Amino acid sequence: MYQKYANGLPLYRQEKDWQQYGAQISRTTLANWIIYCSQNYFQPMYDYFHRELLKLSFAMADETRVQVLKEEERRAQTQSFMWLFRSGEDGLPAIILYGYSPTRSGSHAKEFLEGYHGYLETDSYQGYNKPAGYQMMFLLGAYPPVFYRRRSQRETV
Fold this sequence. Notes:
The protein has helices at 2-5, 11-20, 27-55, 107-112, 145-156; strands at residues 58-67, 79-87, 96-101, 119-122, 135-138.
């Protein structure tokens, strides 16, 4: 897994490496090991950190476009989204969780943040307004420069 995700070494090349050492390990077997580990070891850890994040009084969220080349029933040019949810700067080790969704629908944020009752800092994307129970805080840097100019002009008058 380390070779694949940290070093970017595809499974077909790992399969050839193992053959050089005399081990016949197919890329299907390697892929099945990755799936097994993700379901039995990483998913429980992810779920634990998700529960811990929901207990905090301050969190941050953002989403960005990603392109998935081979996804069932979708063209390679279709935009998908990776969502990021993280803990605040509270002096503790950061909790950083990613989530994938095929669309930018706020339903993903709503599902992920269900049960959260703290403050959420976002870039003011309306999809974060769907969940209830928490206070919204918008990231000021996400507003266009015109907003700053207008505001500073009003303050100097």
